Amino acid sequence: MRVLAMLDGTLADPEAAHIRVDDLGLLRGDGVFETVLVVDGKPRELGPHLDRLERSARMLELPAPDRAAWEACVQVVLDAWRGPAEMALKLVHTRGPEFGDGTPTGFAIGMPIGEKVLRNRESGVRALTLDRGFDPEIVDRAPWLLLGAKTLSYAVNMAAGRWAEAHDADEVIFMAADGSVLEGPTSNVVIAEGRTLRTTPPSSGILRGTTQGALFRAAEQAGWVTKVEPLTLPELRAADGLFLASSVRKITRVHTLDGEALPDASALHRELNALYESEYA
């Protein structure tokens, strides 16, 4: 079950061809996207996702996304969805055809969430740390690297996932050249230390997390302390709990890191998921 809507609000056949073969999003990854979790017909953090889409577009000097058109396009998909209660809704905004008139390509597609993701939410995951190949100090010095933009250029992230799978792991946590923790290919890293939650700052060249932000809001309301600051690998290993946060994963526990079993954080995982879900009760 998939539902596809073009930015003009037209429903389209997701099995048919709609994107020109010379679209720069396809040819060069010259575009941006967001993935929104929808539960019982309600998109979670749609505003922050659209904010991030706009920020990523600015970083690529793409035409600014028409927010009202995107909101209407999202609603078209929601109205047409007849699948499971949870859906992954992908918003895609590209530079459009090469040598075109500058009109961007935009569409939204709703898809079921994969069985592996659903299983891992419950069972937890094995993660590998991999070198991402840059130092956070380069973020401000080299804006053309687009660190912190959610672009369609995801080949490195997908390659990292395949590397993990080939080495008996489910997920990856990227490390910077200076030894600091960055993010997962499609997730933010969160650790718990007592009643404190910590995550890596966007200034290190990572995406500002929408799900991580929702968790931190709920945790603060429940009396937790939250911190956005650099993390190190020893801190991941020593934490009371290590988690990956993303729209479709929600809050997923890491139970094994680089082949080493971490302390059992099952109860803590349930507590954090309850906090996260309280944002939408």
TrEMBL record:
Its EC number is 4.1.3.38. It comes from Actinophytocola gossypii. InterPro entries: Aminotrans_IV, Aminotransferase-like, BCAT-like_C, BCAT-like_N, Class-IV_PLP-Dep_Aminotrnsfr. One of its GO terms (molecular function) is 4-amino-4-deoxychorismate lyase activity. PANTHER family: AMINO-ACID AMINOTRANSFERASE (PTHR42743), AMINODEOXYCHORISMATE LYASE (PTHR42743:SF11). Pfam families: Aminotran_4. Keywords: Lyase. Belongs to the class-IV pyridoxal-phosphate-dependent aminotransferase family. SUPFAM superfamilies: D-aminoacid aminotransferase-like PLP-dependent enzymes. This is Aminodeoxychorismate lyase. NCBIfam families: PRK07849.1-1, PRK07849.1-2. It comes from the Bacteria.
